[in-house]
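Write out the 3D structure for:
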Amino acid sequence: MDENVYLKRTIVKEQVPSNHLDAPRPLRIYLPPGYNELISYPVIYCQDGEDFFNFGRIATTMNRLIYDENIEPAIIVGVDVDKSVRTAEYAPEGDRFAAYCRFFAEELLPFVESRYPVRGSAEDRILAGDSLGGTVSLHLALDYRSLFYRVLSLSGAFLEGTRSRIAQETDLSWLELHMVIGTEENEVATERGTYDFLEANRQAKAMLEDRNCRLSYEEKPGRHVWGLWQQELPGMLKRMME
């Protein structure tokens, strides 16, 4: 197929008003080929929305999957973040974490669902995130399980706070989690220090399996960068959308 077909994308910019956050939150919303307001669509919510679109090339990837793999078209909602407060919003110990999670569940979802024909069931909502974006996505599923149970994690920062949260659960058979981690992610420098993300993901994997989570887990050669995640995103999305 002509490469230009994959690159032809419809992306709408929005601003979500918020009482939980200190300012409206920018969104970028991908509408699939043949978008029709009379049809309902599954929806993928991406943390680090700007990065998922610019570095992850998720819109082009979705076009390819729709045209070449015949997967069901989906709407993608990229939720932007101010990098200066990203850790505060995405890390469970962050001072903006609770407010961000409430914004996501109580303000973002109703905003999107009142304006776009996305399906309103947990089965048709996917949360996606890289690094701490994977962290907050998992916590949202754990804390709002009536809203979310399907999570895609690209090198999630499943550090002690998140593993402690998993430990509070006894049965995660309702949770569907797709994880990928790079085999060279054993010394990842972050704002909070340097961590072994590979070992953290292995420990989280064991805890999740013990609790019967529906888990897809892969270790791939690579570092904690979008070069790895962009490469892995198409296959992970295809598995989740099939």
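The beta strands are 10-16, 25-31, 43-46, 75-79, 125-130, 150-154, 176-182, 188-190, 193-195, 214-220.
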